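cron nightly-structures :: item 1 of 1
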Amino acid sequence: MDAVPHRRHEKYERLIDRAKAVPAAVTIIAYPCDESSLKGALEAADEGIIKPVLVGPLEKIRSAAKACGLDLKNAECVDAEHSEDAARKAVAMIREGRGELLMKGSLHTDELMRAVAASATGLRMGRRISHVFIMDVPTYKETIFITDAAINIFPDLDAKRDIVQNAIDLFTAVGLGTPRVAILSAVETVTSKIPSTIEAAALCKMAERGQINNGILDGPLAFDNAIDPEAARIKGIKSEVAGRAQILVVPDLEAGNMLAKNLSFMAQADAAGIVLGAHVPIILTSRADSVRARMASCAVAVLYAHALRQSANVTG
């Protein structure tokens, strides 16, 4: 890995600056009833990135705002009975075209995702829903995307195709160019003893045949030779991706979750989070997220929504 330390948050700052240059997106926040979820939304609004609509029990929202000294005067509020009702109402508002982004408040992730995934009333489309961590690692010069570490537990090959395409679409939409995508496994050789190596090879062939578009894929790659040029050189791996990966596709949720948390807690990385594959981008934050990571999550989602808006205007 590039051992030269970079200024913390510099990659996030670039994304936030880009988001400030596009129109603010109306963002439906489901159940923002604690300081972290309220503060993240309102600070993004103060920066001109989003226009927040707070959906939840009004008394709880107002009480939380008062307790932490936050002003709700510039935020629209919609009453809901409880967290489950807030999730349903927030999703319904997206379906009605009243917002371009959905944001998780202080409810559990599974409550929000149940409403999103509901067959008749949710936000599912034809593609698999997946999660992307956007990592700002101080010792790595690239912005790293890790997927999927939060939604799909043991994805099969078809699901992985969608997971890869979702991440590529996000990468290109936020203005980072054509991504170098590493399909990770424990080793860099294909072996029947490790099924993820076979799936990695299949995904690369799918990219060659146009089943995955707009990214440069290589795999299987072990983590070291995906992100460290010297490790790739020692192993004799020659490709556009090895040693310079920007998107890391993990074999399963367990591997991805451990990788992202290792970077956060051992390399002082920040992790913004976005869910893709639904009708709108979903900002999925954690109470452990820094203020800058929350802002970066909003910025990435706004840039993606702006790209979708422009694409709709062209096709329309």
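cron nightly-structures :: done
The mean pLDDT is 92.
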